[in-house]
Design goal:
It is a single chain. The protein has one domain: Deoxyribonuclease I, Chain A. The termini are close together. The protein is of the alpha+beta class and 261 residues long. It contains seven helices and 14 strands. Helix 3 runs parallel beside helix 5. The radius of gyration is 17 Å and the shape is globular. Helix content is 25%, strand content 26%. A six-stranded mixed sheet has the order 3-4-2-1-14-13. The protein has a six-stranded mixed sheet with strand order 5-6-7-8-12-9. The structure holds one DNA strand of 18 nucleotides.
Length: 261
DNA sequence: ATGTCACTTTACAAGTGA
């Protein structure tokens, strides 16, 4: 089983690259964030032509999440109970047999002094409460997407410069830790304990070339899935301007491989 | 540390969110 998560920063702008990714990787699941499309504008036909089903919690001009899959899901839920910002489409969950797949786009928070920072913490608390209420850590659950939090100081280009700032503050990292304490494993860290693997680079200032990135796109899996996870890699090439048709997203896809049972 | 991108609109430039 292969699962990919990608913040596409507009699915309309990234459709050619998204279809190329499906062709290239042949994933079983592709979780998208920042689709920025209403469901009525979602490119279902192109995705079906590529051999995939799609479900979306759509919104424009911001947010929007989706899950593409080979098979049709048994059930789908959008949003989650207790979400403090109900009018923003940031979470979709789908079940396929005994597997639950969740695509999540965590609140950015902007800055510690911005009101959206507190909203981010409340949002993460509510997300965790929902997960603990609705799921079993002994089951097969994966939540992946743009968490807008670096798990620790290996996951940012300059810890001295950025420590305490938004994405890297202790309260944000505590919320992420709570998800790991519940039973999720940061699948990338199973096989790689080194610093410097990133999934996002600012469009500005040549950040990609200067290696000024963050690892904020995560794939978290419950222990039964972690035990089957053989590899997690970042498709850094996809972030390059020349890698495909049209411009790149500022995020790279993250790809997890699992042994079949 | 932002010379970018995507998107929007009392729309062909300027604001917004990231």
């Amino acid at each position: 089983m292969r699962l990919v998560t990608w913040n596409v920063n507009s699915l309309r702008a990234r459709l050619p690259r998204t279809l190329a990714l499906l062709e290239r990787e042949q994933p079983d699941f592709l979780l998208l964030q920042e689709t920025k499309l209403l469901e009525s504008d979602f490119p279902f036909l192109d995705i079906q032509a590529a051999g995939y089903q799609a479900v979306t919690h759509g919104q424009a001009p911001f947010n929007g999440v989706a899950i593409l899959s080979r098979s049709e899901p048994d059930s789908v839920t959008t949003g989650f109970p207790g979400d403090p910002i109900l009018d923003e489409a940031r979470v979709i969950a789908a079940t396929y047999g005994d597997l639950t797949v969740i695509s999540a786009y965590v609140v950015n928070g902007r800055d510690l002094s911005d009101p959206m920072y507190e909203v981010k913490l409340q949002w993460l608390d509510a997300l965790q409460a929902w997960i603990a209420d609705a799921f079993d850590p002994a089951g097969n659950v994966v939540i992946a997407g743009d968490f807008n939090v670096t798990p620790d100081d290996r996951d940012l280009y300059d810890a001295v410069l950025l420590t305490g700032q938004v994405h890297h503050s202790e309260p944000e990292r505590e919320r992420l830790s709570a998800m790991l304490d519940w039973g999720f494993v940061d699948l990338f860290r199973i096989h790689d304990d080194q610093p410097g693997t990133f999934t996002w680079w600012d469009y500005r200032g040549g950040a990609l070339h200067r290696k000024l990135g963050l690892r904020i796109d995560l794939i978290l899996g419950t222990r039964p899935l972690a035990e089957r996870c053989t590899e997690v890699r970042v498709d850094r090439n996809e972030r390059r301007p020349t890698a495909g048709e049209g411009k790149p997203s500022d995020h790279a896809p993250v790809i997890a491989e699992f042994t079949d049972r």
